[in-house]
Amino acid sequence: MSPTHSDGRAGGYTASKTLPFRTELRRQFGRRRTQLAIGFLALLPVILAIAFAVGSTSSDSDAGGLIELGTRGGVNFTVFALFMSVGFLLIVVVALFFGDSVASEASWSSLRYLLAIPVPRTRLLLQKALVSATLSIAAIVTLVVVSLAIGTVLYGAEPLVTPFGDGLSYTDALGRLLIAVAYICLNLLWVAGLAMLLSVLTDAPLGAVGGAVMTSILMQILDQITALGSLRNYLPGHYANSWIDALSPTIEWNDIVVGSFSALAYAAVFGVAAWQRFSSKDITS
């Protein structure tokens, strides 16, 4: 019989060794929804390239429009792909990974068994969040890397050209693109925090994912109502497109910094609320 500690713990039990990150990451990466989500983001640049090829041969193509701009080099193609994805697609992917994290365990009736191992609730929530963040970053990086590779092969290593006529060399544009991607990841933290909160509030993964996505859509609608005035500045996601400021010849840091702080603040509030709810929740599934 294994010796026990004075507090009732079995001999050799260490809370910090339960639910290892690598094991959980391998488990989540093996799920079909993860493979489909990342696979679709890898396929998106191919779809865009085909659309550009079809559009460029169409008699009613808009010369000088977004299609022409997106085909002016690999970096421009990548920026176009990000512009098409940030407002909805990446939000869905992040909401999927975070919203499905805890709720799926509850829907499978495996959550109580994880806690009975026992995995401390704080550690379980933290490991789920870290794995979800890793998968989200991997998905975004996949989109960027595949877009850059396909764009460079098809359209060359041309300088970045903005709609305003400004330009950056290919190597400088890569550095700016790295900053832009980092900001996009930071700005999506509020979606991640909200999806995680909803994931511990419901046993239905679709409800958690859908709730986060619908809230994001609602925030975008409210952000378009000019009658709200400066109140729009406090809406989560208001600075979602500030990543574009990193691509100008002189980086405009104000909105990037404010947007990052806003996303971190909302993520912290949602994260703490999720932890408080989960730490005291009666687990029945």
Furnish the topology, listing elements before pairings.
Blueprint: H1 21-29, H2 32-57, H3 66-70, H4 74-86, H5 89-107, H6 111-115, H7 121-155, E1 160-161, E2 167-168, H8 170-187, H9 189-201, H10 205-223, H11 253-280
Antiparallel strand pairs: 1-2
Protein described:
- Strand 1 (160-161) and strand 2 (167-168) form a beta hairpin.
- The chain contains 11 helices and 2 strands; from the N terminus they run H-H-H-H-H-H-H-E-E-H-H-H-H.
- Residues 4-9 and 59-64 have low confidence and may be disordered.
- It has helices at 21-29, 32-57, 66-70, 74-86, 89-107, 111-115, 121-155, 170-187, 189-201, 205-223, 253-280; strands at 160-161, 167-168.
- The protein starts with 20 loop residues before the first helix and ends in a 5-residue tail after the last helix.
- It has 285 residues and is mostly helical.
- Strands 1-2 form a two-stranded antiparallel sheet.
- Helix 5 (89-107) packs parallel to helix 9 (189-201).
Give short descriptive properties of this protein.
285 residues; mainly alpha; two-stranded antiparallel sheet; 11 helices
